[in-house]
Amino acid sequence: MSVSQSFKFRYVPSLKWVALIVAALVLLPIVAVLQQAAFVGNDLWLHIWQTVLPDYVSNSLLLMLGVGAGVLMMGVPAAWLAAMCQFPGRRWLDWALLLPLAMPAYIIAYTYTGILDYAGPVQSGLRHLTGWGYGDYWFWQVRSLSGAMAMMVLVLYPYVYLTARATFLEQSSVSMDVARSLGYSRWQAWFKVAVPMARPAIIAGLTLALMETLADYGTVQYFGVATFTTGIFRTFYGFGDTAGAAQLAAVLLLFVVTLIVVERWSRRRQAYHVKAQPRATATAIVLLGWRGWLACCVCLIPVVFGFIIPAGQLLWWTLFEAHVQWSSFWQLAWNSFYLSALAAVLAVCLALLLAYAQRFYPRQSVRHAVTLAGMGYALPGTIIAIGVMLPLAWLDHRINDAFTWLGWSSPGLLLSGTLVVLLMAYCVRFLAVALGGIQSGLGQVSPSLDESAKGMGRNAWDVLRLIHIPLMRSSVLTALLVVFVDVLKELPATLMLRPFDFNTLAVRAYELAADEQLVEAAPASLMIVLVGLIPVLILNRAINRRRQRG
Amino acid sequence: MLLLKRCLVVASLLLFSAATLAQVNIYSSRKEALILPLLQQFTADTGIQVKLLTGKDDALLRRLALEGMASPADLLITTDVARLHRAKQMQLTQAVDNGVLQQVVPVAWRDKDHHWFGVTSRARPIVYAPGRVAVEQLGRYEDLADSQWRGRLCLRSSDNVYNQSLVAAALIANGPEQTLNWMQGMVANLSKPPAGGDTDQLKAVAAGICDLTLVNTYYLARLQRSDSRVDNAVAGQLAVFWPNQSDRGAHFNISGMALTKASKHKQHAIALMEYMVSEQAQRWYADVNNEYPVVAGVPMPDVLAAYGQPKADTVSLTRLGELNQQVIKLMDQARWR
User: Which residues of chain A neighbour B200 with C-beta distances below 8 Å?
Assistant: First the structure.
């Protein structure tokens, strides 16, 4: 990025300030929560330290390790196969691999528990066939740490798949051809050229998956795995102790900072830029015979376990066992849809702003601000919700004071009681997702292109319009899609911040599932999945168009 | 953005006019399905509009606290006494000096300072598999720590507030040291780590993973009355045992309501509170969610009556709320997840 240092457009200083302000606004809620950590006044921390903290730390670490290894093993090979090869079923597996994105982790956890539990169809069938009883055989406990890992891998691998596939697609297959001509075998070329070149994108996806893992509450709580998130909830709710919860949240943030530092370190001094060259020369590697079927299997497994089985079970429950009131469902689906769309557009705009500020004004201050702005992703929704409410409620109170002072009647809560507070919470929570996608897209646009454009007397707007927008389209679309789906699935902040008489699909699904009516929760869960499919399909069409054009 | 603007305008209009409408705003940790029909009936009867926001107890308390006197909420409805007590402690509620409420709701089921009132009561007895457990083996909650139950007990997580309140009652009866020993004994007896809700514990007992557990009776009643034959079969293998009948009695808790300190529609909110303890509403809860009415004279649903008429622990519910934090610490020490 050193090239762009000398490269400054006229509007850039104001962009820097806008970016710093945006970052500050996004950070405000996190700071608001963390400053509560300063109120130490009881022996609670000692109690936590002595009794439960070791469990929280070890479980959270193990979970991250398991999920990290799992999403890499599922996401990367599938992404490469889908992007670069030709094999049976590739056309539909290419987009089917995205489907688990629409599946919230807590819902897949409920569903698999229903299927694999002692009383579920699998074990019952097994006992029926063999005549065994309880204790006669060993069966995997789905409600366990390993179960939580499996559930999260199944729904989080698409983050790696998405980012990795986007880079593989933009990688010219010429590099592979060159590697082959230099005597590397296909496998060597893959490990020595394709993967290292895609590493920034893969790690960006992995970081997202791990942050999501750290922030998860629904799954670990349901499976009875004590992690940092459940600990924060227990301290905050059980003990009603904000300071203690904030201290735990601070430790959680340490995890996140470590993660971000590791990510930065892993791509130190590396900036991969592809030439803005259409992939016209790219020829898919054709896999024939058993190789083709093996590739098909590699891509099919995540789809089957991450989507087809759980969605099938939800469909079964919805059709044959649940009592559905479809009339109220359209309202819920519409609420979920427009809220997610608004939040996605907002988050992506903010992310573009930050990413461009960083590109055109690569100073320490901007870089740190942008990095910090993404931290909200690893915090549980509830913590974010409280963080957003603190400043907004304060502002509301000041507005009310002003009205009273002027002798008018109180306007009530203009910000903290409306959708404004929800949108802000979503932005804080999911900005990292948008940023990850945009930055990896922007990173691939070589600064020399900007340079040449400038040399030809073009201004920043022209550079954006003529070079960046066409090159960045798939990254922006990806970012929009991922934020949209994330907001659609988001539960704790929505539950806590929504206005009166406003429900979403996730809220409905949660209420029924929390009331231990899994079957009744199925229709709403299925609807989340279906609404989430819409952007997946749109994105898929856009990518296909690009490919055909190319 | 247009939508957002429209929402803002609508919201502010609503808020501006809020004070003048015949309206009650509720923050409820009761699920929508278990309160909305009742509220709709109330609106039909009185013409008072009701707005509902559901959520988790503590999240609602936190929101109420942050909103302060500007909060639109008039009424807080929760499913456990510990949270009602916490709301009172956080000074989010106000006393309701109302003849109907004080007359109809028995002293045991309401706050002595009139801050909160019970709406329904729930029992948490032992549920066991009669085929594998003889009634004579059962006695008190305290006996669940016996070594005869090694590997035979299922318990829900200690995050669950029903368990917290049950342990609080034991703490009052037995003191911290014995309570800790008792919980350690129970944890040692667990057949699997705590996971899932009350219904999951019932299913585990029916499946033979364990032989007994602690649950609220309406979960068992729900399985019994379910349309699903699988659920009926689970309930068919289980029986209720009322512990501690020769001393303090079985543990009971309440779902309840409180008027918020910030209420702008006090009169209408109190009208709704009165409605919640009317015979009609009490019958509805008994029928729809199989809970015990708090109002004397309202008949118990048949399914609950079949479980028997236990002696209930009459310990002050306020005390259960006060002990909540100490209980959670003890639970952590006992390594009850």
Answer: 516
Q: Are A413 and B72 an interchain contact pair (Cβ–Cβ within 8 Å)?
A: yes
CB pair distance less than 8 Å for A390 and B66: yes
Mean pLDDT of B324-336: 90
Among A394, A301, A255, smallest CA distance to A81 is for: A301
Whether residue B90 contacts residue B115, with contact meaning beta carbons closer than 8 Å, is answered with no
Q: Does A457 touch chain B (CB under 8 A)?
A: no
- Cross-strand pairs, B213: B127, B154
DSSP character at residue A236: I
DSSP label at A118? T
Phi and psi at B73, nearest 5°, equal -70, 140
Chain A residues in contact with B122 by the CB 8 A cut-off are none
Task: Output the pLDDT for position A35.
Answer: 82
Other residues' Cβ atoms within 10 Å of the Cβ of residue A174 = 14
Secondary structure of residue A446 in the 3-state scheme: coil
Q: How far is CA B315 from CA A247, A353, B166, B253, in A?
A: 35, 60, 11, 10
Do B52 and A500 lie within an 8 Å CB cutoff? yes
Q: What is the CA radius of gyration of chain B?
A: 21
Residues 23-52 of A with CB under 8 A from B: 47-48, 51-52
Q: How many CA atoms lie within 13 A of B24 on its CB side?
A: 26
Tell me: pLDDT of B134 over 70: yes
Instruction: Give the DSSP letter of residue A501.
Output: T
| pLDDT tens-digit map of A137-149 | 788 888 889 999 9
Calculate mean pLDDT across residues B100-105. 92
| Contact status, residue A433 vs residue A389, Cβ threshold 8 Å | no
Q: Which residue type is seen at B317?
A: L
Please answer whether residues B258 and B320 qualify as being in contact, where contact means their C-beta atoms are separated by less than 8 angstroms: no
B-chain residues near A223 (CB < 8 A): 195
Among A15-29, A206-220, A448-462, B202-216, the minimum mean pLDDT is found in A448-462
Interface test with B, best of A413, A510, A518 (most B CBs within 10 A): A413
With a pLDDT cut of 70, the percent of chain B lying above it is: 94
A420 close to B (CB below 8 A): yes
Q: Could you please report the per-residue DSSP string of B206-250?
A: HHTS-SEEE--HHHHHHHHH-S-HHHHHHHHT-EEE---TTTT-B
Q: H or E element: which one contains A424?
A: helix A419-443
CB environment A316-353: b (16+ within 10 A), e (fewer): bbbeeebeeeeeeeeebbebbbebbbbbbebbbebbbb
What domains lie within chain B, and their CATH numbers? 23-121+253-301 (3.40.190.10), 123-251+313-333 (3.40.190.10)
Task: Measure CA A370 to chain center.
Answer: 17
Amino acid at A25: L
Could you count the other beta carbons within 10 Å of the beta carbon of residue B197? 19
Tokens standing for residue B320? 């259960």
Q: Chain-wide mean pLDDT for chain B?
A: 89
User: What length does chain B have?
Assistant: 337
Q: For residues A435 and B192, what is the distance between their CA atoms, to the nearest angstrom?
A: 42
Contacts of A498 in chain B (CB under 8 A): 53
Query: What's this model's pTM, rounded to 2 decimal places?
Result: 0.80
In Å, how far is B167's CA from the nearest CA of chain A?
14
Helix (H) or strand (E) holding A480: helix A469-489
Chain B residue numbers touching A47 (CB-CB < 8 A): 329, 332
pLDDT digit string (tens) for A13-49? 677 788 888 888 888 888 888 887 776 656 677 787 7
AA letter at A103: M
Which residues is B49 bridged to in the sheet? B23
Closest CB from A224, A397, A413 relative to B157: A224
Is B109 in contact with B293 (CB distance < 8 Å)? Answer: no
Q: Are A35 and A392 contacting, i.e. CB atoms less than 8 angstroms apart?
A: no
